Amino acid sequence: MTSRESGILLHITSLPSGYGIGDLGESAYDFVDFLREGGQRLWQILPLNPTGFKDSPYQSFSTFAGNPLLICPEELKKWDLLTSADLLSAPEFPTDNIDYGEVINFKNELFKKAYTNFAALTRHPLKAPYEAFVGLNKVWLDDYALFMALKFHFINARSKPENTKDYPAFVRLNKKYLNEEQLADYYYGAVWQSWPEAISKRDTTAINKWREKLANEIEYYQFLQFIFAKQFSSLKAYANENDIKIIGDIPIFVALDSSDCWANTSLFMLDENGNPTGVAGVPPDYFSEEGQLWGNPLYEWTEMKKTGYAWWIERIKKSLAFCDVVRIDHFRGFEAYWRVPYGEATARNGMWMPGPGRDLFEVIKEKMGDLPIIAENLGVITPEVEALRNDFGLPGMKVIQFGFDACQGNEHLPHNFDTSHAVVYTGTHDNDTTIGWYDDSSTEVQDQFRRYLNVSGEDVAWDMIRLAFLSVAQMAIVPMQDVLRQGKTARMNTPGTADGNWQYRLDSADLNVEIAKQLKSLSLLGDRNISQRLDE
Asked: What is the pLDDT of residues 120-161, one digit of tens each?
């Protein structure tokens, strides 16, 4: 990562499509074309994993699996697994946001048809690649497919009153940790701790019994993962052919309700019933006065070390098989993490605990060499965190929106960047859009912004983009909402809130030639490594 590059932050779910959510079909290829025409070389996305609680890509059923909602139905038709009539059954989805409930219902119905058609065929061009995929990915795929089959088996069973006789016992066991609403969500949503004891604790006999009983459902989830991998690999190849690198995202923690946690309980801080003994979050900060209570289980780093950090090695390998560069979210948690007692209502009453530090990254470097990793070093950052990042040569992040509250010596302002080995953002998926940020800022901050950039404040989004592109940072990445000069209604996520996030959508008309020209001109001005395409 030595050349100067720039790019766009936009998750795949935000792309235009006729099926209620962005996917890996034509619009994704159109976006690669837009990036190329705009002189960009980087496309940053959010985690690709199946979304769980409140549709967050940071609360996933598996850190290894791909999100089936990103599968393009049109491609399934090209492979003769769906018909035109199947696709015409799509409801009228909103185009400016994502209705996850409707999308999930529609796509699940389509995918089950596709799988049924695939399973009924004795010969098909995808049969041999599918079998090879299942064999190559057994280390995570077997557990994930069984986990999903079990989860939805119990969800369906508990929709009938006669199958909920064990609910009172679940309540008695968990009421000290969960409120009434959460108890119902956990039970009727079939988190793995609510399953019958034999299978929740992975008794071998129970595992074998359920694998046999749910064999068809297990194969369905394996099929979806194969299709996802095939479609995403084709998109990545197209991006790379067009000189575009994809930057992925690895959340530091995994969800409690995940196959990762269920299949590897010894690697997490859990009690004998599978409940966390402490959960992840961050103390009060820029985003929240109460801190952020994420609720993820914490790692048993001592047990991780005994395995040579094998689970983490596999996780990074899997991410880099899909992406050219990965951002590791909440990097500071490797030096020290905020542990909140399970059952707390906020993150205030936590405490800092030591992480694996250098030990983990020395093993990663020994096993995998120097890796294209971006360290998300935002929040409460200490000299020890920065030393860990610098010792392994990992670029950190600068977010210009953070620079104007206290300008004196603020590390997020370009004149204070202490190195070019960094990635600069106008804002991230957790920030408001630049226009939304400016509109909500105090008059003092607005004045500081205008004076720092010597601008009128009439075009704050592109003024901020220009500042990022002209900075010394090797990489400059801006959210698509800023490129489109969109306000706060286009925000992707508001930390500390559970509802209304992850719904942002583009319109196909947004990817137009004029905006691409403006981006290319600004990239040229900032010497963002586009000289080889100037004559195109």
From this structure: 998 999 999 999 999 999 999 999 999 999 999 999 999 999
CB atoms within 10 A of CB 118: 21
Nearest C-alpha neighbor of 38 from the set 532, 465, 519 = 519
Is residue 406 scored above 80 in pLDDT? no
Q: Which amino acid is at 251?
A: P
- Indicate if the pLDDT at residue 183 is higher than 50: yes
Q: What does DSSP say about strands 325-328 and 336-340: parallel, antiparallel, or unpaired?
A: unpaired
Residue 229 has pLDDT above 90, yes or no: yes
Confidence label for 535 from pLDDT (cuts 50, 70 and 90):
very low
* Cα four-point dihedral sign 95, 97, 102, 106: positive
For 92, phi then psi, to 5°, come to -80, 95
pLDDT for residue 407: 64
C-alpha to C-alpha distance for 188 and 156, rounded to whole angstroms: 9
Q: Measuring CA to CA, which residue among 426, 409, 497, 431 is closest to residue 463?
A: 426
pLDDT digits over 233-285, tens only? 999 999 999 999 999 999 999 999 999 999 999 999 999 989 999 999 998 87
- With a CB cutoff of 8 Å and minimum separation 6, the contacts of 303 are 266, 267
Sheet holding 351-354, edge to edge: 292-297, 279-282, 336-340, 351-354
How many of the other CB atoms lie within 10 Å of CB of 383?
8
- Residue pair 247/326 in contact (Cβ under 8 Å)? The answer is yes
Q: Are 197 and 152 in contact (CB under 8 A)?
A: no
The confidence score (pLDDT) of residue 529 equals 67
Closest by CA position to 74, among listed 62, 65, 64, 87 = 87
Strand order in the sheet with 245-250: 373-375, 325-328, 245-250, 42-44, 5-9, 475-479, 422-425, 396-399
CA within 13 Å, CB half, 14: 25
Asked whether the beta carbons of 375 and 394 are under 8 A apart, the reply is yes
Would you give the DSSP letter of residue 268? B
Q: Which residues lie below 8 Å from residue 207, measured CB to CB, with a gap of 6+?
A: 146, 199
Q: What end-to-end distance do the CA atoms of the chain give, in Å? A: 24
206 and 199 in contact (C-beta within 8 Å)?
yes
pLDDT at 398: 96
Six-digit token string for 128 = 């041999």
- Catalytically annotated residues: 329, 376, 430
